[in-house]
Amino acid sequence: MTTVDVVIPVHNEERDLPRCVDRLLTDLPKLFPHDFRVTIADNASTDRTWEIAEELMGEHAGVRGVRLPSKGRGGALKEVWSVSDAEVLAYMDVDLSTDLRALAPLVAPLLSGHSDLAIGSRLAHGARVVRGVKREVISRCYNALLHVSLGTHVTDAQCGFKAIHARAAHRLLPHVEDTGWFFDTELLVLAERAGLRVHEVPVDWVDDPHSSVDILATALADLRGIARLRRSSPALPVTAPERVEA
């Protein structure tokens, strides 16, 4: 069994994928004390992303790839996490905006049994973030909306740097409906509704100025997702959520 499966969801990322994998394979053995595998989750790329993924798999034994027919980060994570043999399932964005030194403290409470799910937070005390005012304001407003509308306790629902114990993933994933960017938020809401323990790790994070995320479309999808979760009854037994501070 692999200890940690580090999943990189990609859609048309031929430029960033080789650099991402090279950096993971070079830096993580020095920074991360556990064995790991890198899994490229290609969700319906139309450029050379999958060809590059195949080349990387041929060159490195610790890299595998899955090609999915439908676009959507959430759908890719759900598909890959559901069949992974690893004890801990993690993911990070291909631009590696989050400092990789945060991976060890992200995973540690999951392996120890202290927590069920761990998230990187750009808004927790101790985080160091470099990004524009617009994205900072949007992020803070979004998380404030989650607190008010869904009663969440986490500080940063959408940072692309998360990990979950396989035991918790197998419990939660069948109930997660969103296949896009709202996947993270829905997973966290269901975890808190089920009384699972969520650990937050303040991260060092530098914004990618070339990000292809459509902010308006993502915001509208998030609002629809929030409305859906407000209407739905909890999919899992509800207990008082227990938050573990970083």
Set down the secondary structure blueprint.
Blueprint: E1 4-10, H1 17-31, E2 36-43, H2 49-59, E3 63-68, H3 73-83, E4 88-92, H4 103-111, E5 117-121, E6 128-130, H5 133-150, E7 161-165, H6 166-172, H7 183-193, E8 198-202, E9 204-206, H8 215-231, E10 243-244
Parallel strand pairs: 1-2, 1-4, 2-3, 5-8, 6-9, 8-10
Antiparallel strand pairs: 4-7, 5-7
Plain-language structure description:
- The chain has one domain: Spore Coat Polysaccharide Biosynthesis Protein SpsA, Chain A (Alpha-Beta Complex), CATH 3.90.550.
- It contains eight helices and ten strands.
- The protein has helices at residues 17-31, 49-59, 73-83, 103-111, 133-150, 166-172, 183-193, 215-231; strands at residues 4-10, 36-43, 63-68, 88-92, 117-121, 128-130, 161-165, 198-202, 204-206, 243-244.
- The strands form two sheets. Strands 3-2-1-4-7-5-8-10 form an eight-stranded mixed sheet, sandwiched between helices. A two-stranded parallel ribbon has the order 6-9.
- The radius of gyration is 17 Å and the shape is globular.
What does the largest sheet look like?
A: 8 strands, mixed
Distance between the termini: 28 Å
Under the CATH scheme, which class? Alpha Beta
SSE-based structural type: alpha/beta
- Unreliable residue stretches: 238-246
What portion of residues belong to β-strands?
A: 15-25%
The gross shape turns out to be globular
Q: What is the CATH topology classification name?
A: Spore Coat Polysaccharide Biosynthesis Protein SpsA, Chain A
Secondary-structure element order, as H and E?
Answer: EHEHEHEHEEHEHHEEHE
Contiguous helical run count: 8
If you average the pLDDT, what whole number results? 92
Question: Any idea how many domains?
Answer: 1
Output the strand order for the largest sheet: 3-2-1-4-7-5-8-10
CATH superfamily caption: Spore Coat Polysaccharide Biosynthesis Protein SpsA, Chain A
What percent of the residues sit in helical stretches (DSSP H or I)? Answer: 40-55%
Tell me the CATH architecture: Alpha-Beta Complex
Total beta strands: 10
Query: Using only CA atoms, what is the Rg?
Result: 17 Å
